[in-house]
Amino acid sequence: MKILVCGGAGYIGSHTILELLSADYEVVIADNFSNSCPEVIKRLEKISGTSIPYAEGDLDDQSFVDQLFEQYGPFEAVIHFAALKAVGESCLKPIEYYKNNLISTLNILDSMRKFGCHKIIYSSSATVYGEPEHLPIAESVGTSSATNPYGQSKIINERFLEDYAKADPEFIATALRYANPLGAHESGEIGEEPNGIPGNLVPYIAKVAVGKLDHLNIFGDDYPTPDGTGRRDYIHVVDLAKGHVAALAEMNTRKGFDAINLGTGRSYSVFEILNCYSEVCGRKLPYEIKARRPGDIAENYLDPTKAKEKLNWTAQYDLRRMLEDSWHWQSKNPDGYTSPADSK
Ligand code: NAD
Ligand code: UDP
Q1: Which of 161, 191, 287, 293 has the fewest CB atoms within 10 Å around its CB?
Q2: Spatial separation of the C-alpha atoms in residues 329 and 15, rounded to whole Å
Q3: Can you give the pLDDT at residue 343?
């Protein structure tokens, strides 16, 4: 069965490609490489020993998406990872974010309709819950209003899927609401490589550990948490990738729209992450306490019960393993995918 993986060269998409191949799916990647590069595909081919077809192009362009279905289809399902994803940048460039993240989804749905493809998995996020009233967060609380255009684009895209599922009885959609992905494939060949200075905690710590950045800035130590720093639900990217394979199987058992959390059901603080990374890389990593980051919340973590019940999926990897795999990738590729061959 052939799966179209939109944004498949990115961080979560690339790890999902490997899990799909292991589960004997055929894959086609569509990506414009705006936040990735063709080297990712070479590495996926190296790890899997398989040639991976891909099309470079922009999913905002309907004719490109139609052509994908014409040239590479028919597809059993689409997995849609492609999006711009930096929260802060989305506040500065709302039009770019809405155009990229919403139009690509509408184009994909339109081509699916034209070419008779009925299943889609959509990359959503814990951000759709906004500031939680109760922890852990279960799907049943429904989506809130997001504080930034990125989060809002996730909520709107979920709504597109929900509305289309009401209109077409054959349509099956799953929005997977992710916790914070960490880590990398055990090979150390693929991993997370954000553009510029990382905005997220662990990619930033990884750059400190590899000597590219001086110290970690901790955004606030006065939150109402045991050590005063923010707490989040962190999940190994390979666990997340496996969740997509489980979700594909579950879509054979129902119709319509559903939303499912992929998280671990527990949180870690910034200090817990930093201390564990220091142990893993063998060096005490320096930090400075700074003001809280605007828009941050004290704590969130997802209730993974529905994923266990419906997908028979549970996260397997613990925090230490996530950080060991992050360090393996980062130390092997200090400059990410542009690292010279002799550093690998
Ligand atoms: P990523 O940036 O590494 O991957 C996204 C990929 O999509 C990139 O390869 C990029 O080049 C491609 N892309 C973007 N816009 C495109 C377009 N218009 N046409 C073609 N390709 C396009 O991001 P990721 O971390 O792998 O995230 C994947 C998905 O998961 C995103 O939708 C993101 O919002 C969501 N998500 C990510 C996180 C996280 O912390 N990484 C958390 C929750 C949800
Ligand atoms: N954080 C931090 N320094 C950084 C980046 C993040 O102290 O350089 C903190 C942030 O305030 C939050 C936690 O680390 O409490 C996770 O932040 P991240 O951006 O990785 O995830 P998100 O806030 O989007 O869940």
Answers
A1: 293
A2: 13
A3: 40
